[in-house]
Amino acid sequence: MISLLLDTSNQALSVAVNRNSRMVAEINTNYKKTHSETLVDNIQKVLEIADIKKNELDRIIVAKGPGSYTGVRIGITVAKMLAKQLDIPVYTVSSLFVLAVSNGQEGSTVPLIDARRGHVYGAWYKIGPDDYTEIIAPQYADFTALSAEIEDAVYLLNGEERITIDIEKYTHVTPRISQTERYEKALKLEDADQLVPDYLRISEAERNWQENR
């Protein structure tokens, strides 16, 4: 089983090729650059590094969100395009779960993505070497309220992203989507034609439009 994995949820970019759930090649960046400018090129590069042709791929796995509206949409669009072009299945995984397993942290972990104004996208997992338990499902929440529900857990954040919440201690993690395939139950088979991002909340523009209707 050869998989192409993509995560463009936020500032970081993670592209990988796995064989039988083990990483063969990956490219991970963590700087501000539009993913629409770099994603396709990095897909080609990681396939070349792995010495794998597109038509050898068996499936695509893409981070579905939450995160940057533009970033998530770019990854989903490219994943759908490739899945239909190559006639292979596309699977999704939560962008928060990607963070939860990216640095090999096991035990009680709380991956977070800053959502501004005191809010976060967050979840709570108990991570094992090849299995996990979801204690709190991915959600958009007030950070103070969410953290009040959590005990004895390691908070995971990408420290290169803008952090506006009041958090004293966390572990920096850069997303590595190659690590998610060890946890098959975290992957969801999708219909490529119906696949849409999972933002967990509507955009500010959509909210303003609804309020002014």
UniProtKB/TrEMBL annotation:
Supply the InterPro entries for this chain: ATPase_NBD, Gcp-like_dom, T6A_TsaB
Its domain of life reads: Bacteria
CC terms in the record's Gene Ontology section: cytosol
Q: Which Pfam families match?
A: TsaD
GO process annotations (BP) = tRNA threonylcarbamoyladenosine modification
**Ranges of residues in domain Gcp-like:** 31-147
**Name assigned to this protein:** tRNA threonylcarbamoyladenosine biosynthesis protein TsaB
Record organism: Jeotgalicoccus saudimassiliensis
